[in-house]
Design brief:
Length: 328
């Protein structure tokens, strides 16, 4: 990590805080999320903040790619799909788009990242075999991060945990700056999104963040499968809650693509409120997931620790009612 990285991160943090303060004033008149029967909030709240903080992330990544040759590959691979997803989310925040259109563009953005990143793999056979799985993971992460963005601070806090793992596993990779900048703008956004939130990120923020987390994980996995597995563990809260929820809804013959409020975190929120759930899950990620992930990445723990960890998180999500109907 260089002083240039730190200066850009500082610009991302301070710029996010400043620009979001200005944005909130406008959004109160033009971009307000009004509560409905599925909402976790009770008060109409400005939304669409993702356009601001990810717009700044895109600008800083583009600048770095233009000025520093070592940052060029990451900028070329990440900026176009994130930009497209951010714009799609912004349009969807203003006027809901069809699920088919959103899904098609998400697949296109995932494929674009896979096409633009210069993969280094042991053999072409491994690459082409893994490609469909990688595409599915990118699209899945894009969607579940959007689905899990339902209470104050939850996505920003989980993203910060992921960034911490990236920097601790290997602080000098082609994605160091991308992750560091993501952490900076997430920290700036959390100033306004922490419970009780004064601003939501909207689809323009949550969907691109999901793609970013998956893209960075895949790039690490291609270089070191243990590092990739460790970063996958850092997404365990979202992956396991969403997986158990989808499975139970499918078994109940529910439409798995239909909007709902049956995730484990949503059931927990109705009992304990936004702050306790978001901060509690962040504590779980930092105090349990992070040490286990670092242990797997550094070979201090066997790789199958990840399987036990995912199983435990899935059982925890099931215990909190993931995928069960609301009773309130």
């Amino acid at each position: 990590m260089t002083p240039f990285h730190l200066w850009l991160a500082a610009a991302g943090l301070l710029g996010t805080i400043l620009f979001l303060a200005l944005y909130i004033g406008w959004a109160k008149q033009a971009m307000v999320d009004t509560p409905n029967e599925r909402s976790a909030h009770l008060v109409a709240t400005p939304t669409g903040g993702g356009l601001v903080f990810l717009g700044l992330w895109l600008a800083l990544m583009t600048l770095a790619g233009a000025l520093v040759p070592d940052e060029r590959a990451a900028a070329i691979a990440l900026v176009p799909p994130v930009l497209l997803l951010m714009w799609l989310g912004w349009l969807d925040d203003r006027r809901p788009l069809s699920a088919a259109l959103r899904f098609a563009i998400q697949i296109g953005c995932a494929a674009l990242f896979l096409a633009l990143w210069p993969w280094t793999v042991p053999s072409d056979a491994i690459f082409w075999t893994a490609l469909p799985v990688a595409l599915l993971y990118l699209v899945y992460s894009t969607n579940i991060t959007n689905f899990m963005d339902g209470i104050d601070g939850i996505v920003a806090l989980q993203a910060l945990g992921f960034v911490a793992a990236v920097l601790l596993i290997d602080p000098a990779t082609p994605f160091t700056l991308a992750a560091l900048l993501l952490g900076a703008v997430m920290l700036g956004f959390l100033v306004y999104n922490r419970p009780a939130a004064r601003l939501f990120m909207g689809d323009s923020g949550s969907a691109p963040i999901g793609l970013l987390l998956a893209a960075i994980t895949l790039a690490y996995a291609a270089a070191d499968w243990r590092a990739g597995l460790a970063l996958l563990m850092m997404q365990g809260v979202f992956l396991c809650d969403s997986a158990v929820t989808l499975l139970r809804r499918a078994l109940r013959r529910q439409n798995v693509t239909q909007a709902h409020s049956e995730h484990a975190y949503q059931h927990a929120k109705r009992r304990w409120g936004h702050a306790r759930v978001s901060y509690g899950l962040f504590a779980l990620t930092m105090l349990v997931q992070l040490p286990l992930a670092l242990g797997v990445a550094r070979q201090a723990l066997p790789f199958w620790t990840a399987g036990l960890d995912f199983a435990a998180l899935a059982l925890l999500a099931a215990a909190f009612g993931a995928g069960t109907a609301r009773t309130d």
